[in-house]
Design a protein that fits this description.
Blueprint lengths: L5 E6 L1 H11 L1 H5 L1 H6 L14 H23 L1 H14 L3 H8 L1 H7 L8 E5 L10 E9 L6 E8 L5 E6 L7 E4 L4 E6 L12 H11 L3 H8 L8 E6 L5 E6 L4 E4 L5 E4 L6 H4 L24 H15 L6 H8 L20 E10 L4 E6 L8 E4 L1
Parallel strand pairs: 1-4
Antiparallel strand pairs: 2-3, 2-11, 3-12, 4-5, 5-6, 6-7, 7-8, 8-9, 9-10, 12-13, 13-14
Helix pairs in contact: 1-5, 4-5, 4-6
Length: 377
């Protein structure tokens, strides 16, 4: 069911990038122009600048800030970028600019708030194995760019990843050792920095780490560009949430066998760096979210998820699908439901990860109406 969204790559980083670039060349080459027409760009583009001139300035600035950083800190990911550029014919500067959107969005107050994730200890599942679930929520304009990718690098662990056609990193995935990582956006008052994008960090962890503790050790070696909430779990049943700002890191462990995350911080070390709960989208924000309290949906989705989970002592696969598809007892989904149907943000990919069996269920589109396809290592 997911053939058109699935890609298998292997070999050197450059080989894997070339394969991805050539497979999706038509879509990749038009992405940067599409991004310049995105409604949220109005927040940062001077009204008097033509799109072409603004695009040139963006590419120049991103390249000067990001190119050497990625090349030095994550050379394999840089080589993979070069491969995507070679395979697709898209300039490297455009690919870097697309990759940097995850950081730029936080810095310019586009505030990409989205995603729901939860980790369940073996004691909380009906078959006695750990499970991680994830709804990837993002701007509706990018829904067709999502892919599932199986990477088999010549050096490093193979991994099944959820990502975009245009980038080398990933926002969610599980590797051959059963390590699962999901990435939710965080929101912070701290200024973003030109550091390694977190999707590249996720890819580095999938390629190099086998357990939660290994992944936490790797995370501790970095400082980050933007805010994020990572959910990390492994085949042993261990799990942790890592709350990240550009200058701070905090780790939270499961309570009563569960971890639930939307897009606000919960650790006392990081909650003080979250945006105020009263903060609202400005009048310049895209029409679908203009004037809304930013954390409102994050709080509502979190509360609803905890409410559902608490009603069942041990959850099975049907329960996980129902959780990801939840519309808060209503017939239709909305901006504030776990299965998001907002005018601006919406659920684009859903996944259920089984670390011990190395099994993944994936649905593209709204989970309430899409079929889940299975992949097993």
């Amino acid at each position: 069911m997911m053939n058109k969204n699935f890609l298998a790559v292997s070999g050197s980083p450059r080989d894997m990038g070339r394969r991805q670039g050539s497979e999706f060349a038509a879509d990749i080459k038009g992405t940067f122009k599409r991004v310049l027409g995105f409604e949220g760009i109005k927040l940062v583009k001077p009204f008097f600048l033509p799109n072409a001139v603004f695009g040139l300035l963006v590419k120049r600035e991103i390249t000067s800030k990001w190119l050497s950083n990625i090349k030095v800190v994550a050379p394999h990911q840089y080589e993979r970028f070069e491969g995507i550029s070679e395979g697709s014919g898209a300039p490297l500067a455009e690919l870097l600019s697309i990759q940097a959107l995850e950081v730029m969005a936080d810095d310019v107050s586009l505030v990409i708030e989205g995603c729901f994730s939860a980790a369940f200890a073996p004691s909380r599942t009906s078959d006695g194995e750990p499970v991680v679930v994830k709804n990837f929520d993002f701007i509706r304009d990018f829904a067709d760019d999502n892919i599932a990718r199986l990477s088999s690098p010549q050096n490093g662990f193979a991994s099944f990843e959820l990502t975009y056609k245009q980038i080398t990193g990933s926002h969610d995935g599980m590797n051959e050792k059963g390590l699962v990582i999901t990435y939710n956006y965080g929101l912070t008052v701290e200024k973003t920095q030109a550091r390694l994008p977190i999707t590249l960090l996720v890819q580095e962890m999938l390629e190099n780490c086998a357990t939660v503790e290994h992944a936490l050790a790797l995370v501790g070696n970095f400082r980050f560009p933007n805010a994020a909430i990572l959910t990390i779990a492994d085949a042993s049943g261990a799990a942790a949430s890592v709350e990240i700002t550009p200058e701070h890191i905090a780790v939270r462990r499961p309570q009563d066998g569960i971890l639930v995350n939307t897009n606000f911080f919960s650790c006392h070390e990081t909650v003080k760096y979250d945006i105020p709960r009263s903060a609202r989208y400005s009048k310049k924000a895209p029409a679908g979210i203009r004037g809304r309290r930013i954390h409102e949906t994050n709080e509502l989705r979190y509360t609803r998820a905890v409410e559902i989970i608490k009603t069942t002592k041990k959850l099975g696969e049907e329960d996980f699908i129902k959780l990801l598809s939840d519309h808060s007892l209503g017939a239709a989904g909305s901006e504030d439901t776990i299965c998001r149907h907002g005018d601006f943000f919406r659920t684009q990919v859903s996944a259920i990860f089984y670390p011990r069996r190395r099994r993944i269920l994936v649905a593209f589109g709204f989970p309430c109406s899409s079929e889940f396809s299975e992949y097993v290592f």
